[in-house]
Amino acid sequence: MIDIHCHILPGIDDGPKTEEQAFTMCKIAARDGIKAIVATPHTGNGVYLNDAKDVLRGVKKLNKLLKEKGINLTIFPGHDAHIQPELIEDIEQGKVLTINNGKKYIILELPAKSVPSYVEECITKLKSNGITGIISHPERNYQIQQNLYVIEKLIQAGALLQITAMSLTGGFAAPAQKTAVRLLKQRLVHIMASDAHSEDKRPPVLSLAVKKAAKFIGERNAWEMASTRPLEVIS
User: Fold this and answer.
1) Rounded CA separation 85/229 (Å)
2) Closest of 234, 194, 230 to residue 15, by C-alpha
3) What is the 3-state secondary structure (H, E, C) of 28-55?
């Protein structure tokens, strides 16, 4: 499996605070069958503003540690980018990283409660520049929970959807789990990721959610969300 949304770099956002904690998270991911992780620290959300150079430096350092310790896991660079009108300019100026720095896909974080009017335009603008926006954890957004048509419009504009594994397994509030199931049943989900932040409360585990998703969309489709499609994204 491949996890394209994970807060795995230490001391950079609200993920692990130390290198030891980050390494423990990596071991948990490897035990779960995850072979690659995209490091996606927050940026542009009003709290964190992580420079691309710091992310690339952190990824290089963590990969070096994993190789030294014999952990079969590869870390790729990225950002959990808060969606805003100037995002494409920030990408072009090298401030915000696309997944694996490939200028093809980017993780987009919505506000928790709403979907601002500029989001659809931003997705369209990214698409016109060859970049596909991947909306992270839409099931946890209040406005989307109330009306799935909001997210359908974003898909029509060119976005992909990524749900959080723990939303499906009940790790977040009941509305998030219910919405995740609704999105799955309506075949609106493209990718599943951990959005992990820690070794205990929010660990990098995908296998439990894959089994859960299989009950609604079949084993093959569930597996594709955690393996085939994420591989296409980082490649």
Assistant:
1) 27
2) 194
3) HHHHHCCCEEEECCEECCCCCECCHHHH
Write the pLDDT tens digit of every residue in 155-209: 999 999 999 999 999 999 999 999 999 999 999 999 999 999 999 999 999 999 9
In degrees and rounded to multiples of 5, residue 199 shows phi and psi of -90, -15
Task: Quote the distance between the C-alpha of residue 150 and its chain's center.
Answer: 20
Amino acid in the structure at residue 150: V
For 153, the token pair is 């419009």
Q: What is the DSSP letter of 70?
A: T
Q: Phi first, then psi: what are they for 81, rounded to 5°?
A: -90, 120
> Residue 228 pLDDT more than 90?
yes
Whole-Å CA distances, 18 to 23, 24, 49, 210: 9, 10, 19, 29
Residue 46, pLDDT score: 73
pTM beyond cutoff 0.70: yes
CB atoms within 10 A of CB 19: 15
Q: For the residues 93-99, what does the mean pLDDT come to?
A: 96
Name the one residue in this structure whose structure tokens are 């948990």. Answer: 28
Residue range 119-123: mean pLDDT, rounded? 96
Distance CA 42, CA 75 (A): 16
For residues 161 and 191, the answer to whether their CB atoms sit within 8 Å is: yes
Pick from 95, 140, 93, 92: nearest CA to 113: 140
Say which DSSP state 111 is in. Answer: P
Rounded CA separation 223/230 (Å): 10
d(C-alpha 136, C-alpha 6), whole Å: 11
